[in-house]
Amino acid sequence: HAMAGDREKCLQAGMNDYVSKPISPRLFVETLRRWLPSGADALEDAPGLKGTVGESCSASSGQEREFASRVWDRSLLLERVLGDEALAEDVVAGFVSDMPERIAALEKAVAAGECTETANLSHALKGAAGSVSAEALMLVAKEMEKKSKEGDLDALRTILPAVMWEYERLKSALEKK
Fold first, then answer.
1. Fold adopted by 70-177
2. What's the CA gap between 52 and 112, in Å, rounded?
3. pTM metric for this prediction
């Protein structure tokens, strides 16, 4: 979920390739195979990746719209942690324990009209939501980050309740798992 143009800037600066967060294990391995010397075929035998190298992992705007309707995608989370159920539980538990503080900080920053702080907090929330595959929350946080960078306080005041609503929907989905 990098900013538009980040990939190109990195490649122009001399990087060989670019993978944005949240990192898909399949895309990561695909990228490594492209650049590692021969003998890297052993990467295909990495736990949880057998038979997956070469599959496309790119997201289109159509997929973004589809993600927006998804509160939580457990199967995608498990894919990101290579099927490790215990790790998935730890990631979710850490996310849930951090959220009240994140929401409170966002509320405070928006109320104070602190666009830079709101952008930073929204960016962190977007990444955290992406790490647990909370697609709808991730997208609303992405919109909040964008409006923060534009200095649009009215939009931030409108988006904040949507962030809170998506978090409540996510909590409910996580409790049902």
1. Four Helix Bundle (Hemerythrin (Met), subunit A) (1.20.120)
2. 47
3. 0.66
